[in-house]
Amino acid sequence: MSGLTNRLATLDHFRNVEEYELIAQKLSGLSEKVSRLENRMADVLTRLADVEKVNARLEEAALITARALGEISGHWDAVYEALRRKDTSQEAPEQ
Fold this sequence. Notes:
mainly alpha; about 0% strand; rod-shaped
């Protein structure tokens, strides 16, 4: 019976080794996936930083455009005011 017990113990040992090898393989596969995800996250963070830089430049351009439009609007207001004054000065005086 001792021989049978030794064989069963050996089979159990091999099963345990196979289970550990399977676990190791799965962990290795997970490690590769995690590494790929980390690389993708690094790429996404780099792209996000680039987008934030572009966004900051766009915001600055929008502010410059808004200021320029405000200045143009002021000039047009002055033109319209001058035209109104010209119109009223050319009206016939009432008697």
